[in-house]
Amino acid sequence: MSENIRVLLPEEELAARIAELGDQISKDYEGESVFLVCILKGASFFACELAKRITVPVIIDFMATSSYDGGTVSSGVVKIKKDLDLDPTGQNVIIVEDIIDSGNTLNFLGQLFKDRGAKSVRMVTMLDKPDRREVDVHVDYTGFTIPDQFVVGYGLDYDQKYRNLPYIGVVELD
Ligand code: 5GP
């Protein structure tokens, strides 16, 4: 059985939309600074591109969570695998996610940063799969809304493969 990747969102479309999100965030936080929390590994490509498009001062830090245990369906229980190095207290935290699916990860993280004393907490996701939502989460900035398909590329993996693709694609098995 071979895997074929069908392009869903080409590189140019991603770049244009990320620039728009950066503009919007820069306007919304004018006169302030932002503390980007990049959720590893999937959001790393998106977070770096987004950070370059934000014109207010940016601090960036990284955190890893898990809810998938290697499969393609969320287990519902979110664990912190790697915590931040920096202190988010008093910061305008923006949680940067690759994709929101069940909503469990962002729901957990939103509460976590409120509990940790952030000045404000917002969320940005590159992709949203609303069909699979299990918990109601308010996401402030969304790149693209996509159908219920397992996607790879631009940081997203399938068994650790395909993160380096410069576009978002769907894995098709022949
Ligand atoms: P949630 O907690 O919202 O169910 O899932 C969030 C996480 O699940 C994402 O950060 C991502 O790591 C993973 N995920 C959800 N949907 C997909 C998908 O279509 N492709 C890949 N590669 N990961 C996904």
UniProtKB/TrEMBL annotation:
Domain Phosphoribosyltransferase intervals: 12-158
Cofactor(s) annotated in UniProt: Mg(2+)
Query: Where found, per UniProt?
Result: Cytoplasm
**Which top class of enzyme applies to this chain?**
transferase
Q: Which InterPro entries match?
A: HGPRT, Hxn_phspho_trans, PRTase-like, PRTase_dom
The reaction(s) catalysed by this protein are: IMP + diphosphate = hypoxanthine + 5-phospho-alpha-D-ribose 1-diphosphate; GMP + diphosphate = guanine + 5-phospho-alpha-D-ribose 1-diphosphate
GO biological process terms, semicolon-separated: GMP salvage; guanine salvage; hypoxanthine metabolic process; IMP salvage; purine ribonucleoside salvage
Which Gene Ontology cellular component terms are annotated? cytosol
Main localization (coarse): cytoplasm
Q: What is its EC number?
A: 2.4.2.8
A Gene Ontology molecular function term for this protein is:
guanine phosphoribosyltransferase activity
Pathway membership:
Purine metabolism; GMP biosynthesis via salvage pathway; GMP from guanine: step 1/1; Purine metabolism; IMP biosynthesis via salvage pathway; IMP from hypoxanthine: step 1/1
Query: Keywords assigned by UniProt?
Result: Cytoplasm, Glycosyltransferase, Magnesium, Metal-binding, Nucleotide-binding, Purine salvage, Transferase
Q: Which SUPFAM superfamilies match?
A: PRTase-like
What is the purpose of this protein? Purine salvage pathway enzyme that catalyzes the transfer of the ribosyl-5-phosphate group from 5-phospho-alpha-D-ribose 1-diphosphate (PRPP) to the N9 position of the 6-oxopurines hypoxanthine and guanine to form the corresponding ribonucleotides IMP (inosine 5'-monophosphate) and GMP (guanosine 5'-monophosphate), with the release of PPi.
| Classification via NCBIfam families | HGPRTase
Q: Which family does it belong to?
A: Belongs to the purine/pyrimidine phosphoribosyltransferase family.
Name the record gives this protein: Hypoxanthine phosphoribosyltransferase
Instruction: Give the gene name.
Output: hpt
